[in-house]
Design a protein that fits this description.
By secondary structure, the chain is α+β, with helices and mostly antiparallel strands. The protein has three helices and three strands; from the N terminus they run H-H-E-E-H-E. The chain has one domain. Strands 1-2-3 form a three-stranded antiparallel β-sheet, with helices on one face. The longest helix is centred in the N-terminal third of the chain and has 52 residues, at 8-59.
Length: 127
């Protein structure tokens, strides 16, 4: 009597193909995840810059917008992971500097994107 089933060779062949596909796909998914996190940080940086500009226009000071600690806005707290801010209230300039100590893959991606969009690497914004 003949039974219809897969042979051991066919099963092993399918397992090898699935292993090869997984070996290619998993690193790509991880890279995409870092890209997305980096893009989110850059978006937060843009919102932080807008918040700082609004606060400066309203009160003539950056007080509490970008300083660590204080009542820093949520977007600035997120962007502060990868960037440093230097405020100058006297002339209304906000300098955004890539933080060299931030070495995570998402921070490096965020700094790369921000650099391409001229949002960081010692970029001065005058309000």
């Amino acid at each position: 009597m003949y039974r219809k089933a897969f042979t051991m060779i066919e099963v092993i062949f399918v397992i090898v193909i699935i292993g090869i596909l997984a070996a290619v796909a998993i690193p790509l998914l991880s890279t995409t995840s870092n890209d997305a996190r980096g893009a989110r940080i850059v978006h937060d940086l843009g919102v932080c810059i807008e918040d700082a500009g609004s606060r400066y226009m309203k009160s003539g000071s950056f007080e509490g917008t970008t300083q660590p600690g204080g009542n820093q806005t949520a977007s600035c707290r997120a962007a502060d992971l990868c960037f440093n801010f230097v405020e100058t209230d006297s002339n209304g300039s906000l300098t955004v500097i890539s933080d060299p100590a931030a070495t995570s893959a998402q921070c490096q991606e965020a700094q790369r994107i921000a650099g391409q969009n001229m949002m960081a690497t010692t970029h001065v914004i005058n309000f």
